[in-house]
Design brief:
The protein is of the alpha+beta class. The chain is built from two helices and six strands, in the order E-E-H-E-E-E-H-E. The chain has a six-stranded antiparallel beta sheet with strand order 1-6-2-3-4-5. It is globular.
Amino acid sequence: MESLRALKAGETAVVEKITGGRNFISRVSAMGFTAHVELTMLQNFARGPLLVFLRDSQIALGQGEAEKIKVRRK
């Protein structure tokens, strides 16, 4: 398992675990980040926000937020 932050543009992964506080987990779950969901990294420049395609939506996350989402590459 590695963090979402480690993915490069074009890579696909599956969400395995979300770490962090209750408010963070609730917020990202409401955005669609739940266990066993497939996502595709659209943009990750290693600085600033990254862009993820998930459940027919594009979602921007900060690098710190992406670090708390653990994924498995496909």
